[in-house]
Amino acid sequence: MATQPETITVKASDALLIIDLQNDFLPGGALGIASAERVIEPINRYTQYFERSQATIILSRDWHPDDHCSFAPQNGPWPAHCIQNTRGAQISANFTWPTQAWLVSKATSSDKDAYSAFDGTELALQMKHCGIKRLFICGLATDYCVLQTTLDALSSGFECFLLTDGIDAVNVSEHDGQQAIEKMCAKGAMPIQWHSLAPLSHS
Ligand code: VGL
Ligand code: ZN
């Protein structure tokens, strides 16, 4: 039997990055992923764990103007989704918010799409400013925003762990999600799951 990797201890200089856990990417949403509800419980567990570990918790949101260039009426690839201040753009009501979190809005200009939470935002600078070195990434969607965010994080010098039980894919083509995982791992992201984290003491 293969030996288990050492468990990972989360430190205060780590960050949990939760990508686009918004109604429009969940069942019933404009770009709803049929199975995506299943990531919420693990993400809630990670959130509580990272909060107890005094790590930083960061949520990104896709936050488009109503005439965004990625929408079909503008000849973009997607139906209208995540329009600023609409229900579809809200973070899932089933997400349990920690006491403190950073919120990063992306793709906010009509004329430019941005899948990565680093694209057009101050996130990399803010994380470096706070001494954050390792990122634990989960959320939606594996084959778009999780992929591009992770690739950008790696090229900005952050160590990245991909929480594979906390991601789900659009899968426009059947294997897009799997291929995205392979790409992130080939570039240096480490795939881990809930049981990879060291148990917290109950004190
Ligand atoms: C996303 C498609 C379009 C994502 C955002 O959050 O992965 N996907 N806009
Ligand atoms: Zn979008």
Which characteristics define this entry?
single chain; 203 residues; alpha/beta; Rossmann fold; 6-stranded parallel beta sheet; 4 helices; binds pyrazine-2-carboxylic acid; binds zinc ion
Brief summary:
By secondary structure, this protein is α/β, with parallel strands linked by helices. The chain has four helices and six strands; from the N terminus they run βαββαβαβαβ.
In N-to-C order, the SSE pattern is EHEEHEHEHE
Q: Which CATH class of the domain at 14-60 and 92-104 and 115-196 is shown?
A: Alpha Beta
**What overall geometry do the principal axes of the alpha carbons give?**
globular
How do the strands of the widest beta sheet line up side by side? 3-2-1-4-5-6
The percent of residues in helical segments reads 10-25%
Tell me the distance between the termini.
34 Å
Compute the average pLDDT. 96
As for the CATH topology of the domain at 14-60 and 92-104 and 115-196, it is Rossmann fold
Q: What ligands can be seen in this structure? A: pyrazine-2-carboxylic acid, zinc ion
Instruction: Please identify, by name, the CATH architecture of the domain at 14-60 and 92-104 and 115-196.
Output: 3-Layer(aba) Sandwich
What characterizes the major β-sheet? 6 strands, parallel
Number of strands: 6
| Rg over CA atoms | 16 Å
User: Proportion of β residues?
Assistant: 15-25%
Helix-strand makeup class: alpha/beta
Catalogue the unreliable spans.
none
Question: Helix segment count?
Answer: 4
CATH superfamily of the domain at 14-60 and 92-104 and 115-196: Isochorismatase-like
